[in-house]
Amino acid sequence: MFSYKPKPQSVLSLSSKTIYHSSPPTTIFRSANQTKQSHARIIVSGLAGDAKLMAHLLLSLALSSAPPLQYSLSIYQNFKYPSVFATNNLIRCFAKSDSPCRSVFLYSSVLRKHAKPNNHTFTFLFQACSEALGMEEGAQIHAHVVKFGLADDLFIRNALINFYSACSRLECSVKVFEESLSSRDLVTWNTTLACFVRDGQIGLAEELFDEMPERDVISWSTIIAGYVQIGHLEQALKLFRDVREKGLRVNEAMLVSVLSAAAQLGLLEHGKLVHSVAKSLKFPMTTSLGTSLIDMYAKCGCIEQSKLLFSNMPQKDSWTWNVLICGLATHGLAKEALALFGSFINEGFAPATVTFIGVLSACSRAGLVEKGRHYFKLMTENYGIEPEMEHYGCMVDLLGRAGFVNEAVELIDKMQVTPDPVLWATLLGACKIHGYAELGEKIGHKLIKLDPSHGGHYVQLSTIYAKVNKWEEVIRVRRLMIERNTNKAAGWSLIEAHGRVHKFVAGDREHERFMEIRKMLETIGTRIAEAGYSPNISSVLHDIGDEEKEIVLKEHSERLAIALGLLVTPDGECIRVVKNLRVCEDCHEVSKIISKVFVREIIVRDGSRFHHFKDGTCSCGDFW
Hints:
Elements: H1 16-19, H2 32-44, H3 51-62, H4 69-77, H5 84-95, H6 102-112, H7 119-132, H8 135-147, H9 154-166, H10 170-178, H11 186-198, H12 202-211, H13 217-229, H14 233-245, H15 252-265, H16 268-280, H17 287-299, H18 303-312, H19 318-330, H20 334-346, H21 353-366, H22 369-382, H23 389-401, H24 405-413, H25 421-434, H26 437-450, H27 455-467, H28 471-483, E1 492-497, E2 500-505, H29 514-530, H30 546-554, H31 557-568, E3 575-579, H32 585-597, E4 602-605, E5 610-614, E6 617-618
Parallel strand pairs: 3-4
Antiparallel strand pairs: 1-2, 1-3, 4-5, 5-6
Helix pairs in contact: 2-3, 3-5, 4-5, 5-6, 5-7, 7-8, 7-9, 8-9, 9-10, 9-11, 10-11, 11-12, 11-13, 12-13, 13-14, 13-15, 14-15, 15-16, 15-17, 17-18, 17-19, 18-19, 19-20, 19-21, 20-21, 21-22, 21-23, 22-23, 23-24, 23-25, 25-26, 25-27, 26-27, 27-28, 29-31
């Protein structure tokens, strides 16, 4: 049915907990404390010797999210002859613990006592092996399944499919799925679908999804998550619209996936729609949903809404704090980000790698050199966190843009890991800003040697030559770029309007309202000139006349998007633009002037950060 070919191990973006479905629990969930209270009543009532009652007490513990292991074990050890039901519940407790392999040890000891397992024993064992990535142990247990004549048991087969996928053996999952057509239910299809998604095999996931005899909310949620995982964000949003139009149920996992897609694309209207769906269906504000909403609003330019959600969340975990710290950093709110980090520490949370990425990027975007040095030292010396490439990137960016280029070079020389091309490109950008032409030339050639297919490195080197008017060198680098068949990443800008997403590239003439956009560009040009605007043509690399360079600047993608925004949004309404590359100096200046003369707030999310243009100024303080 499937043309599956094994591929190298991929990052598992879906945990086994997400896709595993076993038989439904028969006991109402109680917390561990409630179970202990019940246990106390049993003892007081003189029923502690009732094996069936005590086995159900173990079941109550097994159904909790984090069973207390020693307590569970102490109950089990009081059984003179533990039943398979009691044993299964302790196996289940171990499977949920930090030591899932203890489930296998317990199973081995039971076999030595000549006790016979049942089908539920194996489903819990495979769950444990999935958590522990115990491929060898799981394969042996699979052999036991065959030995005990349980190979066609539906629950076991579903657990097997999930187990092999968790251990990156998708070919084994497919084999189990295909070898028995009669032993399939909706869970079987959903589990296999999630296996393909986990492995990044979206094509096979689509095939299976289309073949499913029936689908439920899990099916739709899984395929949407798959599209988000591989970056097919527009497709994920489309499927969510299909789900809503068909009147199908949604679940929290689906909402979280779609919020991630809207956040990555910076599409506020889509994100707001998902939020309204969650409200209308009365979804509780869980940590996962609340954190996703905070992330979405931050990445769509509504950082105030993110802060409000954060304040009102009933429960927060460390990831919630990290998301807001990073969000504040991208909006240039360094003081708030650092203050929130202080509160994070005071609340008793332990900072992780991502926490310091947020903290250091906040320092970088605000030019807080001393604070950046302090937090970098705090991270390594007080918390013992080894710097990763992202941390070094923040520091090199901070030092380089502040003019401490030599210190940035020293930091790179002392790194314990080999600097990647992105880090060298960051330093190259600093050389361009501060006129370190000789060092920039050296780094530029290093970058081209490290990654000859990356067009951006050639462009950076060309820019440095252009700044010192070495046009022959600019032409030579451009020729080399053509010979090696590399191209600069195309700049584009997105703007949402009336439920549609409009995408522009530089010089775009394909939009249905291009004639109106061109007239608006002319109006913009006239009004900003009256306000004192003078074009900064230094970012245009071509050795052409100044007038031609000005024309090139006027057609940059964000200007086309802003022009459309002025056409289609009501007076006074904020214009939001998402751009994939860092905004150039001239467009940044133009956006400031437009915000003043047209009395509009303009929010641009570029490849580096957010820019809030209002009343002729930018939130970045012209430091980006």
